Amino acid sequence: MKRLIALMLCLILAASTLAACQVEGGKEHSSAPVETEAPTEPDPYEDLVRYETSIGLSLYMTEGFTEGNVEGVQACYEGENSNVRFQEETFASLASIGYGDVTELRDYAALIQMAYSLEGEVLSDEYDNVYIYYEVDIQGTSISYYGFFDKGSEAFWMTTFMCMTAQKSQFEEDFKLWASSIQVP
């Protein structure tokens, strides 16, 4: 009988200990992981418009750009104070002129910089964009160019944003954000 009472006391003690572990200070506790929602980052493109070109390339920019037609580029958009142009360089065309070993964005950017004798260096920004910045004086007006590079399935792409250098400080951060949204075919 003593063993039966001792066994029952052990069971009662075990049950009360388990209950105490599950409810402590009036709060329930569970050994199962509690799912919490990860804090959501604000969408950096929320106030922008998605532009989709006929060549399968897309990006987000402010409203007000219209599609243009410029010889020598695959697509372009014109805004009130800035423009953007998209140029494609296929891997096959690079190989045909002896540059088939160029496979990385930074190497392609350096090749473009060398080919066009652009001063400065290949840069990257907080969005991991690879780009070059240069200025050109056209009939007494200084124009700032930001050439961003992307690699598609069959080509490198150079997206060039441009504005008057006097307005560069208004556009530089926008250009970087817009470039971070580029999707190439």
Defining traits:
185 residues, alpha+beta, Protein Transport Mog1p, Chain A, seven-stranded antiparallel sheet, globular, disordered N terminus
Descriptive report:
With 185 residues, the chain is of the alpha+beta class. The protein has one domain (49-180): Protein Transport Mog1p, Chain A, CATH 3.40.1000. Helix content is 28%, strand content 32%. The strands form 3 sheets. A 7-stranded antiparallel β-sheet has the order 5-6-7-11-10-9-8.
CATH architectural arrangement: 3-Layer(aba) Sandwich
Rg calculated over all Cα atoms: 30 Å
The percentage of residues in β strands lies in: 25-35%
- What is the arithmetic mean of pLDDT? 86
> Major sheet, described briefly?
7 strands, antiparallel
Instruction: Write down the domain tally.
Output: 1
Structural class: alpha+beta
Shape label: globular
Number of strands: 11
Give a quick summary of the entry.
Helices cover 28% and strands 32% of the residues.
Topology at a glance:
Blueprint: H1 2-22, E1 23-24, E2 27-28, E3 49-52, E4 58-61, E5 66-67, E6 75-78, E7 82-90, H2 91-96, H3 105-115, E8 123-124, E9 130-138, E10 141-151, E11 155-164, H4 168-180
Antiparallel strand pairs: 1-2, 3-4, 5-6, 6-7, 7-11, 8-9, 9-10, 10-11
